[in-house]
Amino acid sequence: MGGSWRELLRFRVRGRWRPVAVSMFVVAGLLFVTTSINSKGLDLRAASVTDLDHVVRAEREHVNDLQSQVSGLNTQISGLSHQVNDSQVTELQHQVDLLRGPSGFSPVTGPGLTVVLDDAPKSELDEARNNPDSGVTQDELVVHQQDIQAVVNALWSGGAEAMTIQGQRVISTTGIKCVGNTVILHGVPYSPPYRISAIGDASDLQASLDNSDYVNAYLTFVDAYQLGYKVTESSSLDMPGYTGAATLKYARPGPEPTDAPR
């Protein structure tokens, strides 16, 4: 009788744990599925986000996809605008078409040159990091936005008719922003080397680079610490038209507070 009682107790305990075990397996399965959906197939481990180059490439590809969508929509809008049978709209569209080239929205081909800027070699960067008395910091051995802007300004001064940075067309609203060791251009992050191409008379463009105080200041670090600087002349450069947003953004003064001191 005692043995039967113990066997009955074990049977009841096992019977109670079975639905609990099944529930635990179901919950675990749901967690795995939820994690897979939220990660969208990406590795959720911390190591996956420490690869800066991978992050930059992924973000650049994402922005490029969005810009392609914007370009397609702008093409549709332009096509629909040209189909409107209205004399005033037709005249305005004609004015827009005349301004597309000078403003950088049309592709262009012509002779010119390309300037490539790059960070110093790893050996120089390691020396600056490990030897504080070297007289130079790591920050001084990488390309910054002011270095890119110095080249861009010199090329405009040399009579550049059109320009691209990393293959993106430069227009009047183009801004260059340095974030860490990457440069943001039209919302897209880029890592070095940086390619700046300009269409125009190559000799005039080169002379303007040679006469720029800012470019010459950069060249002192090129000579001393091997930062990258290379100029290549081309008989024909193909540049795309700008396809991004063209809305101007600017600050506006706010209303004066009513309780402001007088």
From TrEMBL:
Alphabetically ordered keywords of this record: Membrane, Transmembrane, Transmembrane helix
Listed InterPro entries: DUF881 (IPR010273)
GO cellular component terms listed in the entry, alphabetical order: plasma membrane
Keyword Cell membrane: no
Family matches, as Pfam families: DUF881
TM segment ranges: 20-37
Family note: Belongs to the UPF0749 family.
Protein name, entry field: DUF881 domain-containing protein
Biological source species: Nocardioides marmorisolisilvae
Classification lineage: Bacteria, Bacillati, Actinomycetota, Actinomycetes, Propionibacteriales
